[in-house]
Design a protein that fits this description.
By secondary structure, this protein is α/β, with parallel strands linked by helices. It contains 25 helices and 23 strands. Helix 1 packs antiparallel against helix 2 and helix 9 packs parallel to helix 19. The protein binds adenosine-5'-triphosphate (ATP). Pfam families: UvrD-helicase, UvrD_C_2.
Length: 743
């Protein structure tokens, strides 16, 4: 009986899918002919341009182009989801309405005639019910209004090539099974399939107050990147009326990472969003092209135990601190006050048009909220208007004075010759003076403003870091030694990542950020690698706090210059929601155990990461003093035999990575070093310096430690932790002893 019912149910589901696909095919067919029609119309209109009224055919072309685009978008949208129109269904009843089955997919589809939803978008308010976890009476949010309903059941489908393979009703236990199945997948195909298994705590972050900042401390592999990308997609879906994609920006740690997420965003319905790094963004927004010292170089030096100048590290850290922001503020205040002394009275000829004191007050007080140069532009406009208005009054007054004087001379002077001379003199004087005033008035404002010379932000900053007297003023807290070593460090002009925050801050406060770069919403991945001031400058320049920030302090390998705890970020974003994610979806229990051992040794006191229950091959330690290509070969073969294909060999330093690639190549083993600019060749073994591995993941990871071991210090622990947590299924450690891996 049970079986019979199941079969019937399966058939019904099959029919539902077939009907959906058939409907999609019908629409596809008609959008194809819409496309052809529009193309034909455009062609005709183009050929008619010559002899028809050209504005008519121009309109025609525009209209048909729009039709064409609509039809093409519809076609592409349908084609993208045809193979798998939906992934889940909810059996749901909105309060006061009949029960219904809603099928959830990556985008929505409505019936053209009945307007009934055939597929409901995963980002729609009601789809939240699917992710929220509970069955029974529930509430959900529709644009701020709480709606009630009853959720009877949730069902998940396995559909491939538009064929129903399987489905399963979801309760708390099957939820785990489904997730596990999803996690069994391979590194190269997974990122886009997550929408069906997004977990409750992840969903909460994706949908958390969109107009408020959010900071997420999430364990390695807890889905931070995934969540950030889905939140962007959800944001545009929900707030599309108020924001367009160009106003959104995602800041990634490096270009490699941008490439990595590049394929995912369009699949989530998000393109056109600005994807960049902090360094590129700042330079673009400031129209600067700086030769930055490689931010990884300093890290490499520390890691390779090459003695780095303590002062350099100290300065890097200081440049990210609230104190450096304070120095910039003091500098700006000084700069502003100097400019303010230049405001004197505005005259035309001998007439005072405006008081300097008044302009000064506008500059320092009333317009204080604006960037300095914008204030000056405003003041110039005000002077222009005032000059215009007052000149008219002055001229009227002058004219009538001359009239009066001339009248008096004409009537009052007896001597005709004297009278003639006086009157002529007055007329001549008037005829010179009045046009001169008119002429002068035209340029008064611009002449007045000339003394406010515009400064280049780069020049201002160089002045700050090289001018001893200035430093005494803006950093009085420093003793002689500190000031001198700061000056010494800046003798030669060079630019580091840390300097960008100040440049951006100065730009924001002196000139303002231009509209195309004035992003309204910001998403930051790997936020632990930012300094306080980097974030503060960005917030000040963009004048928004709509930031989504995700990161993991345990992976803070740049902590010598970046954040070491979240408090400064929370102070900077007082409205921020703070969330944590402890579960790792990437790594097997066996691998996570090893990584957790390292996490325990860190000073941050972060809670252990809980792997989602998924077992795998225990990590293997292989004792070897030096690289043996034979061993690598064997391991790679074994990994491939396990049907795992994305493999990385992670080395602590770039130096070791280079030397390993050399040795492998010499033995004809195809290998490639990963650097920020080269495309990945899938056929070769990817050799990755540990600091570049952040954010990436592989089916299997081999970690070697031949040159230098991982030492028992904060940065090495973090580098090792990052390396260990890149592995999804298999992990191999090769080195002289377990101690080399802090075990
Ligand atoms: N709900 C989920 N369902 C299926 N897979 C998931 C889910 N959440 C995360 N994953 C997978 O877990 C892996 C880790 O996700 P992601 O890279 O977003 O984590 P992360 O927190 O950014 O990691 P890291 O900090 O180590 O870079 C990815 O393969 C992702 O596809």
């Amino acid at each position: 009986m049970e079986q019979h019912l199941q079969l019937k149910d399966f058939k019904q589901e099959q029919k539902r899918l077939n009907d959906t696909v058939a409907y999609m095919d019908r629409i596809l067919h008609s959008s194809k002919s819409d496309i052809e029609n529009a193309q034909a119309n455009i062609k005709t209109a183009m050929s008619n341009v010559e002899y028809l009224d050209s504005s008519d055919s121009f309109l025609n072309i525009l209209m048909n182009t729009r039709f064409f685009e609509l039809a093409r978008d519809q076609k592409e949208g349908l084609e993208a989801i045809r193979q798998k129109p939906y992934f889940a269904r909810i059996h749901f009843q909105r309060e006061g309405e009949p029960e219904e089955f809603l099928y959830i997919g990556k985008t929505s589809l409505f019936h053209n005639e009945t307007h009934e939803p055939i597929i409901v978008d995963w980002r729609s308010p009601v789809a939240n019910v699917y992710y929220d976890g509970r069955l029974g009476d529930i509430t959900y949010d529709v644009r701020g209004d709480e709606q009630a309903g009853h959720l009877f059941a949730k069902r998940q489908y396995k559909i491939e090539q538009a064929e129903l393979l399987d489905y399963r009703d979801v309760d708390l236990t099957t939820n785990d099974e489904l997730l596990q199945e999803a996690l069994e997948g391979k590194a190269d195909v997974r990122l886009t399939e997550i929408v069906s298994t997004i977990q409750k705590e992840q969903n909460e972050i994706i949908r958390a107050h969109l107009r408020q900042p959010i900071l997420v401390q999430g364990a390695a592999g807890s889905g931070k990147t995934t969540i950030a990308l889905h939140r962007i997609s959800y944001f545009l879906y929900t707030m599309g009326e108020h924001f367009n994609a160009e106003q959104l920006m995602i800041l990634a740690p490096n270009n490699l990472f941008i490439e990595y997420i590049g394929d995912v965003l369009p699949e989530l319905g998000v393109d056109k969003i600005c994807q960049t790094t902090y360094a590129d963004y700042v330079q673009n927004a400031l129209h600067l092209k700086l030769k930055l010292t490689n931010p990884n170089e300093q890290l490499e030096k520390i890691v390779e135990n090459i003695t780095t100048n303590f002062d350099d590290l100290h300065i890097s850290k200081m440049k990210g601190s609230p104190f450096y922001e304070l120095m910039m503020q003091r500098y700006l205040q000084r700069y502003e006050e100097q400019l303010a002394t230049l405001f004197d009275d505005v005259f035309i000829e001998k007439y005072r048009i405006m008081k300097g004191e008044h302009l000064k007050k506008l500059f320092l007080v009333e317009f204080q909220y604006m960037p300095i140069e914008k204030r000056l532009e405003r003041i110039k406009k005000i002077i222009q208007t005032e000059v215009k208005r007052k000149t008219t009054a002055v001229l009227t007054k002058l004219n009538s004075r001359y009239e009066e004087a001339i009248g008096r001379a004409l009537n009052g002077m007896r001597d005709a010759e004297k009278r003639r001379l006086t009157v002529t003199k007055m007329i001549d004087e008037r005829d010179v003076r009045i046009p001169k005033i008119k002429q002068e008035a035209k340029t008064t404002a611009s002449r007045y403003m000339k003394k406010f010379t515009k400064a280049k932000v780069k020049t201002l900053y160089r002045d700050i870091v090289t001018n001893r007297e200035l430093l005494y003023e803006i950093a009085p807290e420093w003793d002689q030694n500190e000031t001198e070593s700061f000056l010494q460090a800046h003798k030669k002009e060079s630019w580091a990542l840390e300097d960008l925050a100040s440049l951006y801050y100065l730009q924001a406060k002196v000139k303002g950020i231009e509209d195309p770069w004035k992003m309204r919403v910001v998403f930051i991945d790997e936020v632990q690698d930012y300094s306080y001031f980097q974030l503060a400058a960005l917030k000040a320049g963009l004048e928004t706090d709509m930031f989504t920030m995700v990161g993991d302090l345990a992976q803070g390998i740049h902590s010598y210059r970046s954040l070491t705890d979240w408090q400064p970020v929370l102070d900077l974003f007082p409205r921020a929601t703070y969330a944590t994610l402890q579960k790792s979806y990437r790594t097997t229990i066996e691998i996570m155990q090893v990584a957790n051992e390292i996490l325990l040794q860190m000073e941050e006191n972060l809670p252990l990461v809980e792997p989602v229950v998924r077992h795998g091959k225990p990590p293997e330690f292989i004792a070897q003093q030096a690289l043996q290509v034979q061993t690598i070969n064997q391991i790679v073969e074994q990994i491939k035999a396990n049907n795992h294909h994305s493999i990385a060999l992670i080395c602590k330093t770039t130096k070791e990575a280079k030397s390993i690639v050399k040795q492998l190549e010499k033995a004809d083993f195809p290998a490639q070093i990963l650097d920020e600019n080269s495309a990945i060749d899938q056929q070769k073994l990817l050799v990755v310096p540990s600091h570049l591995a952040k954010g990436l993941e592989f089916d299997a990871v081999i970690i070697t430690s031949f040159d230098v071991p991982y030492y028992d210090n904060p940065i090495d622990r973090k580098l090792l932790y990052v390396a260990l947590t890149r592995a999804m299924h298999e992990l191999y450690l090769i080195g002289p002893s377990k101690e080399a891996f802090l075990m």
